[in-house]
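Allow me, if you will, to draw on your knowledge of protein folds for a short while. The matter concerns a single protein, recorded as an amino acid sequence and a row of backbone structure tokens. Could you please explain, in whatever detail you think fit, how the structure tokens follow from the sequence? I remain grateful for any guidance, and I place the record below:

…
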Amino acid sequence: MGLYAMNILLILLIGAALKYIDDRFGLSDVISSIFGVIFLIALTMGLANSIGVDNIIGLGILAIGPVTAVVLLVKHKKRKKELTCSHGIYRGRECIDGIFRCPQCQKEKETHEEAQRVLEEQKRLIEEQKKKTDEYTKQYQTMRSLAIQKYRDSIQADKQTLGNMTPVAFETYVVKLFVRMGYTSVKQTPPSNDGGKDFTYINNNGIYYGECKHYKDKKVGRPEIQKLAGAMAAGHAKGGVFVTTSTFTEQARNEAARLRIETIDGDRLIELINQYSTDDDKLQDYKLICTKCGKIVSFSYLDSKELSKLCPDGHEVASAFQRMYQSKPKKAYQKFGRMYYL
């Protein structure tokens, strides 16, 4: 009885050792099955002999071993399949000192971790760029507001200057402006008996007639345009220009376009004054920051219809006046060889 007990204990120890080896290093299905059958048969025989059973009941007990071995083998195969990695390595995704048993699984893990590090770095850079963009946008809005306010203040000052002039002084001012603009033989006509024109000038080898109206609230209408056209026809002028401190009616603009007469309203007149001014205190340019890279871009007040520029890094920077000129459709017309918009 003691010998059989020792045999059973030895068999249990061998079984435990095989289980540890299988869990640690993995055994093939065949080896696992052989060891499992031997172990269970030996255990069953040991039990049968230890209790002194050598009859049919003993044979029944002996038969339990192979049956149990088959059941355990099926379970072992199922569990082994679950623990086998996609590369066919048993317990391939189990870590030993932080490294997978399967080299390919380990490589995939390292690749995935590297991809995660790259993704995290990209997220960090995006967050940093977003913070910078938000800060640049705030600076852009501040600089844009200052530029627009400075422009409006200058326009208001010019309007006040023009508004305080007498009609004759306004005519003289426009004549001097056309001289600065580069036209030749610019001459002012007498205040009375001017023949429907206030000044004449030479342009493109032809004589042109100019008319000035110093209005505050009144718009220039079609009759005034037709009067200048009559003077042009009488003097065989090649073309004409009508300058006012106010604006033109739509009918007047259409009539002027038909009769080859350029129209300069108060806003355009102020632009020309700033563009061709000899005063150092007149507005020249303003600066805006690029909202993407923070580089500074210079814009000219003299061309307020310049909608955008590229910064040194190639990013598009909207001018301070872009929204104003894109807020609604505008009718284009040509003056002095350039396109302008109503």
